[in-house]
Claudin
Amino acid sequence: MDSGLCLTELAALFLSLIGYICCLVALFIPRWLIVSSGMLVNESYQLGLWQTCAIQDVGSRVCQDFQTILDLPLQIQLGRVLMCLSVSCGVLGFMVSTPALTCLKCLDDQDKYVRKIAIMIGGGLFLLAGASSTCFVSYFAYDAFVKFWNLPKDIPRFEYGSAMFSGWTGGLFLIAGGSVLIVSHFYSGQGETSPVGSNATTINLESV
């Protein structure tokens, strides 16, 4: 067993796990956008992908789910799709790549090709998950930035919430984990000797 490759795979999965948790948190917490506290002193509002919340200084919190999908803004609908896609691809990435880890004995040594393909697919799923999260959060941030500066000064304006930064962080960690996973196996196979070539050499030596 290649200990260096094993540690690299574990590091890649650890990065992907951190990214997956961050994306999962960003998907569900209602803190994508918040109203600046300087405009509303006694009350603040938070916007998420699934609900909105009103929070008062005394500590009371009232949240309300969105009633219908058809009345949702485009960015909220797009966010649900892409963030759910990110979380789903992350789960599939772990399901595909974990049994193929070099540290585990789920596959025999003769199944190196299957192991490599599974790792590549898992890494690709992590990359897709990270790209989905990063692209949506960037679009959502740009949309909020444009609206922030286009509204009159006397109208409360939303600012970035912690869920957006969690989504950004998760996307980058997933991209990093998927990249490390793919690159490690891509370069590990460069120095391997082809079984066909080895058999041919053995046959030629035996025939002499």
User: Anything to note?
Assistant: The helical segments are 3-28, 74-97, 112-150, 162-188, 195-207. Strands lie at 33-35, 43-47, 51-56, 61-65, 158-160.
